[in-house]
């Protein structure tokens, strides 16, 4: 009886993870920075599955890893909540709405341009409000003194002025080293539960983490050797390598994908650009652009292979690194470094808030007015994000008329 009750309890947790991630996957417009803001609003502030510090630490880890940082953060939350299956369900819930939508675009709506739609511009303004609210809340808790506020501002300036896929990694490493020095005399409390086991917060053991890292490395080595044997293996290799080696978010993946799929003749240049335009119109991670490309090249089977291959490295890397990250972040010296790293993450978000979110959305006084109105509804009227999404889409449609 006890075993059945425990299984039912785990099943309830797994279903909740999938359901919450699915709702986020259906409503999270605005790109990776906006996704992190949606996660913060739902997972941290509303459901309290993790606190501000652990969320910021998880984001810092995902900035170090190649792949889609927002999807990896969602996977990490699923792992912490429900183990390996929880991470998989968090990934599936957040990804399937946009993946399916882009598959439909590939099969039925190829070539339709929705990039200039008024409602889409309204969703960009929603992203402005959501991200501003997240930065405001995180900044109050993670940059409480002038030292960490200065680190955040410096991180924002460097991220804006040094346009490189490696700038975020360098900023986080530099902030960590600076934190070791600035806060060397500060003693942090240690969380005993996380030091006792690698399975704290429902995540995986160190042995399983090592196995995930080994699988990641093995696929990275073996798939290029097997690609000549079958066209679908070649596709799996191209998308897996792309997902394994890209830093800097979804937009950075585009030139590599174009080189792989257009260069191989799987899709035309026109199909590639049409799919990219469609990817801007759907919620969820931009990496689901791979779903469009796979469907356009090889139909349903290509859809599943491309989607799985480009996201699998993200899952394996987070699952492999997270147990060690939990242990490391409770070492006192690591806590000193993370105090500064968390401030740097706020600065990186601030830079991303300005470019591309602000610069691509706010071009006129009306845009600013709508974004400010949405921010007030979110921050002071406490309306849920999905209502803000609907109001923003409607406002953008009306403004476009």
Overall description:
With 401 residues, the chain is mainly α. It has one domain (2-400). The chain has helices spanning 2-27, 32-46, 52-64, 69-108, 118-142, 146-161, 167-182, 192-196, 206-226, 231-245, 253-262, 269-279, 289-328, 332-361, 365-379, 385-400. Residues 190-202 have low confidence and may be disordered. It starts with a helix and ends with a helix. It has 16 helices and no strands. Helix 9 (206-226) runs antiparallel to helix 13 and helix 10 packs across helix 13 (289-328).
Describe how the helices and strands are arranged.
Elements: H1 2-27, H2 32-46, H3 52-64, H4 69-108, H5 118-142, H6 146-161, H7 167-182, H8 192-196, H9 206-226, H10 231-245, H11 253-262, H12 269-279, H13 289-328, H14 332-361, H15 365-379, H16 385-400
Helix pairs in contact: 1-4, 2-4, 2-5, 3-4, 3-14, 4-13, 5-14, 5-15, 5-16, 6-7, 6-14, 7-14, 9-10, 9-13, 10-11, 10-13, 12-13, 15-16
């Amino acid at each position: 009886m006890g075993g059945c009750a425990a299984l039912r309890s785990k099943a309830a947790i797994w279903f909740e993870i999938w359901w919450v991630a699915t709702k986020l996957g259906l409503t999270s417009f605005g790109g990776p920075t906006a996704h992190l803001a949606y996660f913060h609003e739902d997972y941290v502030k509303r459901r309290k599955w993790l606190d501000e510090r652990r969320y910021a630490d998880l984001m810092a880890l995902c900035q170090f890893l190649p792949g889609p940082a927002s999807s990896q953060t969602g996977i990490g939350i699923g792992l912490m909540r429900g183990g390996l299956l929880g991470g998989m369900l968090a990934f599936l819930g957040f990804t399937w709405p946009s993946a399916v939508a882009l598959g439909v675009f590939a099969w039925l709506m190829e070539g339709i341009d929705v990039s200039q739609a008024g409602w889409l511009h309204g969703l960009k303004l929603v992203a402005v409000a959501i991200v501003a609210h997240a930065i405001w809340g995180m900044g109050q808790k993670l940059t409480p003194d002038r030292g960490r506020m200065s680190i955040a501002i410096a991180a924002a300036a460097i991220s804006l002025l040094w346009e490189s896929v490696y700038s975020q990694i360098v900023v986080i490493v530099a902030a960590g080293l600076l934190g070791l020095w600035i806060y060397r005399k500060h003693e942090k409390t240690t969380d005993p539960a996380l030091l006792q086991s690698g399975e704290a917060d429902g995540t995986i053991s160190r042995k399983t983490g090592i196995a995930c890292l080994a699988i990641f490395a093995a696929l990275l080595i073996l798939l290029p050797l097997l690609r000549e044997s079958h066209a679908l293996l070649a596709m799996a290799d191209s998308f897996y390598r792309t997902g394994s080696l890209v830093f800097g978010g979804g937009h950075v993946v585009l030139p590599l994908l174009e080189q792989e799929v257009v260069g191989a003749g799987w899709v035309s240049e026109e199909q590639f650009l049409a799919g990219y335009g469609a990817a801007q119109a759907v919620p969820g991670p931009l990496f689901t652009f791979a779903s469009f490309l796979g469907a356009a090249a090889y139909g349903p089977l290509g859809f599943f292979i491309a989607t799985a291959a480009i996201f699998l490295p993200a899952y394996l890397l987070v699952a492999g690194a997270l147990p060690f990250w939990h242990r490391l972040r409770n070492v006192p010296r690591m806590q000193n470094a993370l105090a500064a790293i968390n401030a740097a993450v706020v600065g990186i978000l601030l830079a991303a808030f300005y470019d591309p979110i602000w610069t691509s959305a706010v071009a006129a006084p009306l845009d600013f007015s709508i974004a400010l109105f949405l921010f007030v509804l979110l921050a002071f009227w406490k309306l849920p994000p999905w209502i803000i999404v609907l109001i923003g889409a409607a406002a953008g449609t009306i403004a476009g008329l």
